[in-house]
């Protein structure tokens, strides 16, 4: 269990078992006139004459790593030379399957420097049965040496379940901000920087809507506010220490009214921020472009005991006055929210169902027993999958049993299907789609294009306008012709609120034209916009208002936008804040889907099953929710031959027991608001 699968991990046996990947390697006991010494042991290795970022030191570990076992990697590294002071260093696995398929798996990375040794850590698991496995270090630009002191790969220790947070004595809904209503002048507040604080009047007297949804009936606000003048930096504003008032692991909702004075040129960003041991934490943002009062809302959660927490309000440009009224920070009672959501679910997601039985003897109606069990809820719940996942039969079993939709992590993205111009790779996506189709799992096509500059291949960036337009057309034709009718949804151009690569080069019409062409090539697919931080109040670039305007602009140009994608990467979800965004988006009258809630690739602890295949607490909650979303009922047929119950849409089995027979039938309930009458012929 504790054995290191790396041979000669500290180079005590020279460079035996190590080699260069496209470069040379050397052994040292010191470098740079004795300024660089090993952190531990007597030796370290260096890579020299690196001409590509993927050049580095490697070791073959075939046969020493087993599939479906979690491993952890630890390395001590630094960089040297070429005037590079800091660079990303990555540990990567090159894996070759028996059919010669190659796969590169990033297993750890760290920001290394030329000043000192740093430790790199990560975990990995092999899903398939590889014929060859090589671990290597890579990353820094050509000409920069990678130095490695030790490299260790061991079985990962089983992660113990985390302790449930201690919510004992939590004062839910109680404002922790002192003198929020300014009844005592500016007591409790201090200016951040050399701005001036005073008390103004004439602010709203009701608490903002999102806070009202959380707190219920609430006393009126005072009508007083903090007026901040003489601001000479964007970060200047009112501040208050709240260190002792916070409890770990609780989600806190932030709410206030904000307004800016005259003198601003263009929209201003206002931010409720927290300084947690001098680290900035976002408590909510809003963009203000007029002299009205605006609601600001957000949330945060602290998981490590801080020594100092300060809340402050900042954002507008130098010289712009800032006003804040009724700032509230309060712990959210999630269990109360769950009760409310269950009531809402019963009201919105269920409908009245009346089973009308024909073929019953009217005399025997009253003794007829009915048992109704829902087999499947048709509410779409999907999972992200990758090509490597589907080599693991345990993963596949869990996936097909518990999900009815899928999205591919990277395998449909343009940088995956055409990494170099003309070098097409649809093999991974084909195999994943085949698995989904065989198991009747619907799929989302993510994504045709991605408008964020950093996600675009270098060969695309090097094209002139004419060739880029041709490449875009080829991408549309190639992808949508190949998979016509196979993907139910497409994210046409991902994250247009956060990037504009194609629009900047091809003009404003290109976005709408992508939608139009995609619809012509595959009319059966629903075409989505897809973006992040729409629903959590923490990013003014993608507020619900801006998303709505973005969609209206596309529709105004004739783009057939059929769905709104909300990625769902929310750090500290608060129901009323999310609902407020959804209600605003709902005015457009098109379907809203959470599309990436919340993928493990962006959050370390977002899995449902551990490496050993055991359900963790999140997995248990998920399966319990799936059970909760199944409707069951039993009772007797009434004198008119009817049996009524309230249930979710989906597939049901009904068992009817009379004195003389037992009959079992299957029926389907579609979504709808009005009562559904189903005739069941016995």
TrEMBL record:
GO biological-process terms attached to the record: polysaccharide catabolic process
SUPFAM superfamilies registered for this protein in UniProt: (Trans)glycosidases, Galactose-binding domain-like
Entry's transmembrane regions: none
Family in the record: Belongs to the glycosyl hydrolase 10 (cellulase F) family.
Stored Gene3D superfamilies: Galactose-binding domain-like, Glycosidases
Protein name: Endo-1,4-beta-xylanase A
Active site annotation, chain numbering: 596
InterPro entries, alphabetized: CenC_carb-bd, Galactose-bd-like_sf, GH, GH10, GH10_AS, GH10_dom
UniProt-listed Pfam families: CBM_4_9, Glyco_hydro_10
Keywords, alphabetical: Carbohydrate metabolism, Glycosidase, Hydrolase, Polysaccharide degradation, Repeat
One of the record's GO molecular function terms: endo-1,4-beta-xylanase activity
Superkingdom of this protein's organism: Eukaryota
PANTHER family xrefs: ENDO-1,4-BETA-XYLANASE A-LIKE PROTEIN, GLYCOSYL HYDROLASE
GH10 domain location: 366-682
